[in-house]
Amino acid sequence: MNFPLVRHRRLRQSAGIRSMVRETVLNVQDLVQPIFVTYGTNIKNEISSMPGVYHFSLDTLKNEVDNIASLGIPAVLLFGIPETKDSMGSSGFAEDGIVQEATRLIKEWYPELLVIADTCLCEFTDHGHCGMVHTFERDGHIHGDVLNDESLELLVQTAVSQAKAGADIIAPSNMMDGFVQAIRGGLDEAGFQNIPIMSYSVKYASAFYGPFREAADSAPQFGDRKTYQMDPANAREALREAESDVLEGADMLMVKPALAYLDIMRMIKDQFDLPLVAYNVSGEYSMVKAAAQQGWINEKAIVQEMLTGMKRAGADIIITYFAKDVAGWINEK
Ligand code: PBG
């Protein structure tokens, strides 16, 4: 008998065969493009730590959304930079809040394009935390507790105002306990029984959000988010977080960040039957961009390899600042 009998290379010998046996394929329909919207006119300001990502005012937004829609990307995720901030984050749930205004416009321009609203308060609070804060001074420093149940009421108001403006999907990212149940109840009561909740179920307290906090101007003014976001060292706790969201009525589960948490994604996918979302976060984007600008890596190849890895790990949907690029590459083929 000839040796070797088994030749793995038979299925790798041509592009045709490789594509025939490929297990994981990225599709444009898998992608969600995040967008940062702000007040003012004629604004298209690049975020310095995220080359190629911009703040758009409502008048320059049209062009960007035209581009996203023409690429066939099915959904955008909106983040807002408000004019004013206060302790309650009231511009997050104002009827004329920036996210609400942008949502109405996008739905008018493209009724079919899905608008996902990030439901959180950190972009709208003056202290930069994701909920209401009780502050106190100790040893000359300001400390604060993020109040869970009091924050839920504000988050429900935020979600309902986003749905009223036309958001198709509510994506709560605040990591308060009970947020899915509270928001589900609030949406149902307001007549939005059919608006799905894409829960940021498993969200780690991650340094990979650094560039986003510049982009969204949402860095906490004291302390950190470790009392509400998860410890990066924990995996079993992710199952508990996801399970409570499932019981509370979540329609989709998210793992965030993506790259350093592919094991978590696989675990959640194997355990639960809901669609799984990966959030390829700002720091993951910035690292690739920085290396690409130096000419150290092949950006196009690296990005597709990373996103394929997320899908292979179980992601059905990928939120990524690379969505437009990836859609363009897929459409080219
Ligand atoms: C709001 C929110 C954050 C991100 C998405 N929603 C920031 C945070 O929790 O500090 C991060 C997204 C990214 O880094 O791309 N809570």
Structure report:
The chain has 333 residues and is α/β, with parallel strands linked by helices. The chain has a single domain, classed as TIM Barrel (Alpha-Beta Barrel), CATH 3.20.20.70. The chain has eleven helices and twelve strands. The chain has helices at residues 15-21, 61-70, 98-109, 148-165, 179-189, 210-215, 236-247, 262-271, 282-293, 299-312, 323-332; strands spanning 31-38, 44-47, 50-57, 75-81, 114-119, 132-138, 141-147, 169-172, 198-203, 252-256, 276-280, 317-320. The strands form two sheets. Strands 1, 2, 3, 4, 5, 8, 9, 10, 11 and 12 form a ten-stranded mixed β-sheet that branches. A two-stranded antiparallel ribbon has the order 6-7. Strand 10, helix 8 (262-271) and strand 11 (276-280) form a beta-alpha-beta unit. Helix 4 (148-165) packs across helix 5 (179-189). The radius of gyration is 21 Å and the shape is globular. The model has no long low-confidence stretch (mean pLDDT 96). Ligand PBG binds at residues 118, 120, 122, 130, 173, 209, 212-213, 225, 281-282. The site of ligand PBG has 11 residues, from helix 6.
